[in-house]
Structure formats: structure tokens, C-alpha cells
Amino acid sequence: MNLKSLKLVLVFMISILATSAVYAQDDEVATAKQVVEKFQSELIAVMKDGKKLGYAGRYQKLSDPISNSHDLTKIARIVVGKEWEKLSEDQQQKLTDIFIRLSIASYAHNFKDYSGESFGFDSEEETTRGGVVVHTHLVIPNDKPVKFDYMLKEKGSSWRIINIIANGVSDLALKRSEYTTILQREGFDVLMSKINEKIDSYSKL
Amino acid sequence: MARKNIINLVSAINIPLKVSAAILLAFVLGGCATTGSAEHTVNKDDPYENVNRAMYSFNDKLDDYIAAPISKIYNKVTPQFARTGVFNFFSNLKNINVIVNDALQAKFSQSASDTGRFLINTTLGLAGFVDVATDAGLELNIEDFDQTLAVWGVPNGSYLVLPILGPTTLRGIPGTVFDVAANPSTYLGMPIQLVSLLNTRATAEGSLKFIDEAALDPYVFTRESFLQWRKNLATDGKSEASLDFGDDIDELNSGDKKIATKSESIRKDVSKDNHKLELSAPLQ
After folding, report:
1. Cβ separation of A93 and B262 shorter than 8 Å?
2. Domain residues of chain B, as ranges?
3. CB of A36 within 8 Å of any CB in chain B?
4. Using the beta-carbon criterion (under 8 Å), do B274 and A67 form an inter-chain contact?
């Protein structure tokens, strides 16, 4: 074996070791802060490729990062509040399903390109009920930074985002008012068709 | 009783009689609508939802047919730097009110920095058209009399949608009266106020478009974001009561297992959907 091939073998072995080290890190429980930062970096990466990917490409690329960092099934349940109990099991399933698609679609629609934005970490705090709030901000060139506060809860052994508060406006509270109002005033079918319309327009705009 | 109060307050801010009549009419209509749908749970922040909704759609139509087309023309004939300049000019005049309210809320260091901001922008910033102060590190603060009343412990009261003026609360009405009186642009006369109005509408274009895009129920979306935004301003970003939905989550925990197993199958569905989307979505 000459020196060159030995070098190759070494490089190969090191890269195997390096990847297994990465896997080992993945197996460890990620902290709430890590979950948020991983998601934000994945989001920025998609924004950078946003134009090239197109809506369908962004949807696909964001699907796993969003599902793995957010507890979308729980969010879907919270946004309908007490109305959840009044829905049949089939309706609950349909709502959860469509809510997941809407969440991914709205990310794919709203984060379509990149103009130098970056996320910065501010602080982390525990809430009285065992949740964690990760305070971050989005830096936008030539504009005021936007505060993004992520509320996380433990799901099994990992942390999942259940609410995002942008400049003091809570996404969960906003959605909850909308969903419960529509369910009360117009019913389940109207809610479903409104969400479907929204997903449809996100894919076209 | 409460209704009478609202009408008194509205007429107190010199809204023409016609508008007061419109509100009165809307209350009557709203009253009819309420009896028709008695089973709806009343939102405690928005007991006059039916009236407010009617007013909201009135404003929306007014915007569609009058304000939006004019604003579109305004946007076409004025360059961006001119609109920014006009925005800065009126925003600088508002600073006097900000400084007064800083003081009323005992925020003395902020009052000093806002005074500096006003002086720099009025002189170096050419009567306020250029916002030099922000570049110098003196950020714009948003303070008004409604926030002062909040700091003094006055509750915000019911949510209201006023004709033309849009979303406010009961507390916001005396707040606006004070702010209008403390704003020098009020005394500049009609054509200048019209420019201010036009420019405000043109600047709001982005936000209005966002509501259209993001909202399932634009009325509720506007109400919730308005109330949360005002609360956030009044508490200077320290209101985090809405952060924790602990009650709901604890209440929901019992049924979680069933949902968790289902979520796996949904994830699969989602990835199936991706493929569909990939095929059907036009290439961008």
C-alpha cells in the first residue's frame, strides 16, 4: 500500500468517524434552544434556495424540518379549543391533517426568498408550567428586527415548538380565535373549505 | 347604558352627526342580528361583534372602492423617497405627543431620548423629512395616550370598529381625542391632513395585503392582532401572559396518546401530497 492510498483510507475512516459522531449527537436529547436554532437554520437554507426551489420545492424541503420541530398535532388541537370535543373522530383527524398541510404551506409561501436575513438568539427561560420560551430575533437588512419568541413543550424525550410570538403577537392565540369563531359561526365544513382555499392560494401566489 | 356611552364618546370626538347616526343604525341592525343567532358564545373582549362586523365590512368596502384606488394612484405618481419623506415628516410631528406621554408614564429617560430625536430630525433632518435620529441610534418609540391610560390602570374595555377610523377600544376613544389634540398636524389644515391620510394608507398597503393573505376570518384576525399589539405596546413587550397555553395543554393531555399514533400516518400522507404538489405546481 503506497502513501497515497493510505492517506485516502485515513480520510475515509475519519469521515466515517465524523458522521457517526454527528449521529451520536443527534441521538442525545436536543435542548429547546437547539431545536429552535436547527429549525431556523433549515429555514434560512430554504430561503437562500427559495427562488430556485419554487413553491413545491420549498414545501417539500420544509416538510420534515417543520414536522420535527413543531408539535403540529397538539397545535391543531389547541387552536380549536373546546370545540375539539364536539368534533367526530373523523373530523378531528381531517382537521389535524389539513392543519399540518396549511402550516407547511404557509412557511413555503411566506419564506420564499433571501435578502440577507439572519436569526439571532437572545435568551431562554422556563415557564411555570414546565415549558421553555426561547427568545430570538430576525435581523432584516435595512429594516427593524422582528422579535420571535418560541414556546416549547416536552414531547416524549424531545422539545417541540407549540407557539410562535412575533413582535408580541401570538400565532396560537390568533389562530385559536379564528378557528373557534369560524367553527361556532359557520361550522366545520366551512372551516375546512376556507383552509383548503388558503393552501390553494399559497401554492399559486 | 353602555351603548349610550359609546355614542356620547363618539360624538365627543367631533365625528359628524351622520356618522353617529350610522353607528346608531348599526347598533339597531346589530341588535336584530344578535337575536337571530343567540346560540353564539359572546366574546368577552368583543360583545358588539355583530355591529363591529357590519362596520368592518363597511370600512372594507370603503377601502376597496375609494381609499385603495386613490392610494394606488398616489403610489404611482410619487417616488418611494417622497413617501418615506412624508411619513417621516408626520411621524416627527407625532413625537411631541410621544414626549408628552413618555412624561405622563414617568418614562423620563425615554422622554429625554425622544426629545433629542425630535430636535435632531427637525433641524438636521430638514423639518423631519429625513429620519437622521434612527441612524444616530435614537429609535422611534410608540407612545400614545391610550397607553398612558393603560399604565394608569384603566382597562381597555370593549373592542370597537369605528367607521373610517377602524379598530379601537373604549379606552382608545379618549386616547385618540388626546392624541389628535396633541398633534401639530391637526392644526395644519385640510390639504395637509389629506396628504397624511393618503400616505398612511399607502404605507399600510403591505400590512393590508398580509391580512388578506394570512387570515381565514379577516375580521377576527384584525381584532386579535390589534388587541395583542396594543397590549404589547402598553406593557412595553413585557406582557407574556399569552405565551403559555398551559391550561389547555394540561386539559388536553389525556387524549394525546391516540393522536400521537395517528400523527405518523398523517406525516406519510403529507409526503404523498408533496409528490402530488411537485407534479402539479407550475415551475417558478
Report:
1. yes
2. 3-12+45-278
3. no
4. no
